[in-house]
Amino acid sequence: MTKQERATRTRQALIRSAAVVFEQHGYAQARLVLISSGAGVSTGALHFHFENKAAVAEAVVAEASRGLRDMSTTIRRRTDTALQALVDTSHALVERLRGDPVSRAGFRLSCDGERAAAPDLRMEWHHRVRELLDEAAAAGTLADDITREDAAAATVAVTAGFEVLGRHDAEWLSPYRLTGFWQLLLPRLATPETLVRVDPSGTATVPPARGPALAGLVVGEADVPAETTAVAAEAN
What is the pLDDT of residues 164-176, one digit of tens each? Predict the structure, then answer.
């Protein structure tokens, strides 16, 4: 493995560890030593990749944002209709919020008042929902008496609400809950011809979150030059 590959693995391990620490302790109480130890590296190795805690938080949000975009693009490419892509993407998002700490921490860090960080993942999600609804309208699959903005607002409000409620009770992030929502909304949202072709429980396999194999990964301090680790450790 090259030094660049080891550095990339270390950075990803730090992001994943940081997500877990931010989720467990909140941004204010999160300590860099907990993040570095969770990734199996020294605080010097952490400072080689990130200047401070704010930079780590920004990296977590950016990783969650990248995952959301990649997931949505992948699902749309393999889905026949925009409405089914919307349903499938919402299920994939909820699955990530249930199983991927980076996605959970990314949403929390970018949206909560404790430490709002760009980008705003809920706004990104709203934008993607609106894009798919616009595409569905252009294809003539939306009912005439419902506005796209109302439909987007309802979708984002419910999924964002599930994200908040799911922090304390994972049952809110179950496929059953989201399927129930789509069973309520789709008859109002889709034309009769389209409704019979859209599965409210979703059809797509959820794309894996980035770097799942890094969970619990122990990365040695050899990933960074020894003198860099030493200097950074002293500075900390």
Answer: 999 999 999 999 9
pLDDT at 200: 97
DSSP string, 24-56: HHHHHH--HHHHHHHHTS-HHHHHHH-SSHHHH
Q: What is the rounded radius of gyration, in angstroms, for the C-alpha atoms of the chain?
A: 20
Q: What pTM did the predictor assign?
A: 0.83
Residue 190 three-state SS: strand
Q: Is 125 helix (H, G, I), strand (E, B) or coil?
A: helix
Q: In residues, how long is the chain?
A: 236
Q: Are 16 and 215 in contact (CB under 8 A)?
A: yes
Nearest alpha-carbon partner for 45 in 13, 67, 72: 13
Alpha helical stretches, state H, the chain = 3-29, 32-39, 43-49, 53-77, 82-99, 101-111, 121-138, 148-165, 175-189, 192-195, 226-235
Quote the tokens at residue 192: 């009769």
Q: Which amino acid is at 64?
A: A
Q: Is 171 exposed, middle or buried (0-12, 13-18, 19+ CB in 10 A)?
A: exposed
Tokens at 77, concatenated = 């490419």
C-beta atoms surrounding 124 within 10 Å: 17
DSSP 3-state of 206? coil
pLDDT band at 179 (very low <50, low <70, confident <90, very high): very high
What phi and psi values does residue 215 have, to the nearest 5 degrees?
A: -60, 125
Q: Each residue of 190-200: pLDDT tens digit?
A: 999 999 999 99
Q: What is the DSSP letter of 180?
A: H
In the chain, the largest separation of any two C-alpha atoms, in whole Å, equals 67
